[in-house]
Every structure is written in structure tokens, then in C-alpha cells.
Amino acid sequence: MTTSQLADRLAVRPASVTAMLQKLAAAEPPLVEYHKSRGARLTEAGQRAALAVVRCHRLLELFLHEKLGYAWDEVHDEADRLEHVVGPAMVERLAAALGHPARDPHGHAIPDADLTPIGPAATLLSALPAGCTAVIDQARDDDPALLRQMAALGLLPGITLTVLAEAPATRVTLGARGATPLELPADLVARVAAEPPEFSTLTNRPSKTMPASPFGPSFF
Amino acid sequence: MTTSQLADRLAVRPASVTAMLQKLAAAEPPLVEYHKSRGARLTEAGQRAALAVVRCHRLLELFLHEKLGYAWDEVHDEADRLEHVVGPAMVERLAAALGHPARDPHGHAIPDADLTPIGPAATLLSALPAGCTAVIDQARDDDPALLRQMAALGLLPGITLTVLAEAPATRVTLGARGATPLELPADLVARVAAEPPEFSTLTNRPSKTMPASPFGPSFF
DNA sequence: TGGCTAATTTAGGCATGGCTAAATCCAGGC
DNA sequence: GCCTGGATTTAGCCATGCCTAAATTAGCCA
Question: Where are any strands of DSSP class E within chain B?
């Protein structure tokens, strides 16, 4: 990662990134390996620290959705604030209370307690060739409007779709066959990933109901 | 409240208190009414802000105990960190998930959603006259050792006790009558409050089991 | 009323994590 | 091999919330 890539992602000035990278590289143990004017990369320790935060964030998202009845487009911001103060003990209690889940409400893998690195994401819808059949795997969690749009279209993790055309616009059919074709917006197909049915661990498990949790929180 | 009283309670230097009081008094709306060199007092808005934090803190404590299986002496610190980042929506969802409870695990009243001020606490055990029968009402939540000691003695909110003697040490019997007398440490009786049975809303409701939650979290 | 002591406030620092502006670096084009 | 422009780093500020040390205030007693 270069300094400016990080600055863009974090919506922060490059100078601030430089300062923070220097600090993280000087930490004990160092969390990044930093080569002046040349970019930085996570160390082993840095990757574990990052995975711990990701684990916490995703468990919180699932908790807010499953146990408190939040809609799947509302959980990200709350989790973002909570993730930095939730202690390790609470993370594990949350995991236990949720049954040590493998995925958050958006389909993202939840790192296990050992902080094993998680594999690469599935393929973006925008990269699927026409004729291809795939299972929705995950969607970015930081754009509520995207998530609401997906819910409205019935485009949820676990749903199977078939690509009819990729240009000029992505046209797909949902479900098995014969359903009415949908035209998917370009910004959507660039931020939703899918997998071949034979790879998906979500197939035919159309997630209780990501959007609004109409049944209410599970412990009422 | 004077500056030094606040400094003591907050374990902070008086100079820091002065600075913060000036800031809170200058806030819009002002949260404290501050008279230079003369002390400060909460404004209406300040009291509401404080009650909102207390409500959040106590709901979190109850949540951690009831839903995540924390022991009652472990919840305070976690709640202290969480209370400042939990948003208003989550507070109300927690309240709903817990059934809009009136008390936290230590017996403290939870302010309602309207932030109605809560009444004065019950009487300290140390102030009960010999011969008096009372129901344990609440205990300070910020001292895990005290809470563990109470649990070990069976001194839980809702438990009825009778004071046999107040000096030189407080001796009590727990439960109805005839039980073996207990001698209570001075630091304990100064931090646990009780009420006359006819005032208590906890009578004969010896709280499922404050200490360890042996049945595990309620939604397993 | 003067003065003394304790309480309080002011003045000036430190660390965090952001910022801008200015210097420096470096890679590609000539 | 230079030179130039974008990327990067440095230098120097700002706000927060805490600190210490010094000045000030206030209340009490003679």
C-alpha cells in the first residue's frame, strides 16, 4: 500500500498517513513494515491486530442484526463505533451467544478466534460472463443505500442468479429459471460479489431475511 | 458541587475540573451552571444528558449480565467503555430487548426513556438501627471485590435481612428468621443500601442469580 | 478589618491525531 | 544524465483533555 492509497481510503491527508505509519512501524511489536517514500505493508502482528478488529466488527454487525433487530443497512455505523471499545472477553461472549457464526449479515467471513487470515473475496458481479450462474456471496457493508437497493431487488446473500448479458448493462434472472429479468445498476454490480454455486457455502440458504428483520430480534 | 469535590470523585486535578466546567458552561445548551470560584450545578439539559448516560450504562450492565452471561462484578468496566459510543437507537433497542427493565443487576434504578430523574437511593446498611428488618436494594457497581464478597455472603438485592446489632460490628441474619447470624465488614455496610420491606419493589424476588449466571446467557 | 490558609483559577506543557504549506524525493521523458 | 511533476515527507499548527506550578480568590478568625 502506498501512502496516497491509504490516504484516499481513510479520507485523510497523506501527511497524516505518513505520521501514523511511522508510529505503527515504531510500535512494539511493529504493526507495519514501512519503507520511507516507498509504501508500507502489515507485519504478522499488524495483520493479527487488523483481523481482531474485523472479527469484532463483523460479530457486532451480526449481533445488532440478529439480536437487536437492526436492518442490515443500519449495522455498519454502530459497529464502527463499538468495535474500538469492545474488550476481548466481550468479543468471545458475543461469538458464543451467536453460535460462533462464519458470516456477518452482508456475507463477509468472520475471522475465527485464532485470527486465521480469511481468503480472497468472491468475484464481483461486474466480472461475471454472460451465461454464468452464481450465488450472491457478499456486499459492501458501508453503503446503506446500496444495501437497501439490494434488498428491494431481492438480491441477498445466498440467492442464485444467472447472468443474461453483461453489456451494455448487466441483466440477470434471480432464482432457478424463468423469473423476470432484472437490469442491475453499474454501481451495484461493482460492489456485490458472487461465487460459483459449487463453491458457495450459502447456496439455498437465503439468509433468514437480511433487510428489516420483520420477525423482530430473536430473543423477544 | 465544588471544584475539589468533583476533582476527588473523578480522580483528576482541580485545574482540569475548572477547565471542563468552563467548557460545559459555555456549551450550547449549557450543561452546567458555573459560578466562578463558587462551584457548579447541572442545568436541566445537563441533568438530562447525565441521565441518558446513566440509562445507557445500566442497560448495558443488565444486558451484559442477562444476555452475555457476565458475572455482576464484571459488567461495570465494560459498560463504562461502551456507554460513550452506544447510539440512542441502540439504547432503545437494548431496552426493548431486555423488556424495559427498571433495575440493573446491582439494583440501581434505570432511568426511563423520558429521562425522568430518579429518586434518592435507599438507606445504607450502616445506617440501619438494630432490630430493623430491611430488603437489600442496591450496591455500588464499581467495586468488583465488594460484589464478589456480597455474592459469597448471599447478600443480593431482594434478600431480606434483620439487623441484630450495629456496634461494634454490624451483625445481621439473612432470610426470614433463625438463620445463622453474619458479621458484615464495615466497608460493605457503607456501600450497600436497603429499604423497609413495604417500600421495596424487590421483596422476595431474589434476582435470578446475580453472581455468575450459572444458567448461562438467556438466549443460548 | 487585616491576614492567613485552603480552594480555585490561570498559565503554560504534553500526547493524540488530525491539518496546511513547504521541502524533498523519485520516476519517466527527453 | 537532467528535469520536472506528482508523490511523499517534514515542519509547524490546532483542539482535546489531561498535567504542574504559579497566581489569585474567598472565607474565617483575631
Answer: 32-35, 39-42, 123-124, 133-139, 160-165, 170-174, 181-184, 192-195
